[in-house]
Design brief:
- Keywords: Antibiotic biosynthesis, Isomerase.
- Belongs to the isocitrate lyase/PEP mutase superfamily. PEP mutase family.
- It holds the Pfam family PEP_mutase.
- With about 325 residues, the protein is an alpha/beta fold.
- The longest helix has 20 residues.
C-alpha cells in the first residue's frame, strides 16, 4: 500500500520514506501545515513545536546565506542547507523550494535528484523563467511556456528513485496578474504532466483568488498555498475550501530577523547586555533542544578507561 492509499484508508502507519510521509499528509483529510525553515536550528525548533512537515524556503535560505531571493545563491548551496535540515530532524518530511529549477529540464531533474539524495521528501518548482525574482517583489514576473514547464515535471518524475518522492508544480499565473483561466489551465496541464501536487500562489491581501480557484478547480491533485499576504483565515478555513496544505513560508525567518535586529540595537544603545537577558533564550533551552545531556552520557559510556585486569584475563 502506497502513501496515497494509506491516506485514503485512514491509515496513519509509518511509510518507507520522507516522501511517503509527505504524500500521506497531502492526501489525508483536512489541510496539513508545512512550517518554513532555513537551516538545522529552525528545523529543530519547528519540529519541537509540533510541525509534521517543513518547507525549505528559497527566500529564507537565500536570506540566511546573505543574498537576495533571485537565484543569487547556487542550488548546491541551498541543498547543502537542506541537508542540515534533514540531518537535524531525520524522517520529518522536508519539501524543498526549488525556484524555477535553475534552468531547463536537465538542471531541474538534477536538482530534484540531489534533493532526494540529501533526504528531502520532495521538490517544488515554479513556472517563472530563470533567473527569477521573489514573488512578493516587483511586477516583472515572466512565465515559462506551458510545454517547457511540463517537460521539467516529466523529467523529474522519470528520474526519481523513490516512487513516493513528491514533485510539486507551482504556478505564478495569479502573481503575474494573468486571468484565472490561465491559472486553471496551467494547473490542469501540470497535473496531466505528472505533478503530485499543485501550489497556487497569490499575493492579494484576501483569499478571494484562492477561493475562486478552488471553486473552479475540477482536478483531484492536491493543492497547496502560502497565505503570506492573506493571513486572516485559519488552516481550518482553508481546509474547508479543499486546500490540502498550508505553507507558512517565511514567518520563522522574519521573526528571527526582527529579534536579531532588536537585540543588536539594544546592545549597541545600552553598551552592554544587562537589559536583555530576559528577552533571549536561556542557554539551557538550546542545550536541551540539541540533547547535550545525551552527548554527556555517551561520553561517559564510550570514553571510560578499560578495566585492564579484565582485558588481560
Amino acid at each position: 500500500m502506497n502513501a496515497t492509499e494509506q491516506a485514503a484508508n485512514g491509515d496513519r502507519g509509518t511509510t518507507r520514506s520522507a516522501g511517503g510521509r509527505l504524500r500521506y499528509l497531502l492526501h489525508a483529510p483536512g489541510a496539513c501545515q508545512l512550517m518554513g525553515v532555513h537551516d538545522g536550528l529552525s528545523a529543530r525548533i519547528a519540529v519541537a513545536e509540533g510541525f509534521e512537515a517543513l518547507w525549505a524556503s528559497g527566500l529564507c535560505m537565500s536570506t540566511a546565506r546573505g543574498v537576495r531571493d533571485s537565484d543569487e545563491a547556487s542550488w548546491t548551496e541551498l541543498l547543502t542547507l537542506v541537508g542540515t535540515m534533514t540531518d537535524a530532524v531525520p524522517g520529518v518530511p522536508v519539501l524543498v523550494d526549488g525556484d524555477t529549477g535553475y534552468g531547463n529540464f536537465n538542471t531541474a531533474r538534477r536538482f530534484a535528484g540531489r534533493a532526494e539524495r540529501v533526504g528531502a521528501a520532495g521538490v517544488c518548482f515554479e513556472d517563472k523563467v530563470f533567473p527569477k525574482m521573489n514573488s512578493f517583489f516587483g511586477d516583472g514576473h515572466q512565465l515559462a511556456p506551458v510545454a517547457e514547464f511540463c517537460g521539467k515535471i516529466r523529467a523529474c518524475k522519470d528520474a526519481q528513485r523513490d516512487p513516493d518522492f513528491v514533485v510539486v508544480a507551482r504556478t505564478e499565473a495569479l502573481i503575474s496578474k494573468l486571468p484565472m483561466e490561465e491559472a486553471l489551465d496551467r494547473a490542469a496541464a501540470y497535473a496531466e504532466a505528472g505533478a503530485d501536487a499543485l501550489f497556487i500562489h497569490s499575493r492579494m491581501n484576501t483569499p478571494q483568488q484562492i477561493a475562486t480557484f478552488m471553486e473552479r478547480w475540477e482536478g483531484s491533485t492536491p493543492v497547496l498555498i502560502a497565505p503570506t499576504t492573506y493571513h486572516t483565515p485559519s488552516v481550518d478555513d482553508f481546509a474547508a475550501l479543499g486546500i490540502a496544505g498550508c505553507i507558512w513560508a517565511n514567518h520563522s525567518m522574519r521573526a528571527a530577523f526582527a529579534a536579531m535586529r532588536d537585540v543588536c540595537q539594544r546592545i549597541r544603545t545600552d553598551r552592554g547586555i544587562y537589559g536583555i537577558e530576559d528577552q533571549v533564550a536561556p542557554l539551557k533551552e538550546i542545550f536541551g533542544l540539541f540533547d547535550y545531556e545525551g552527548l554527556e552520557k555517551d561520553e561517559n559510556c564510550y570514553t571510560q578507561a578499560p578495566d585492564l585486569a579484565a582485558v588481560q584475563g
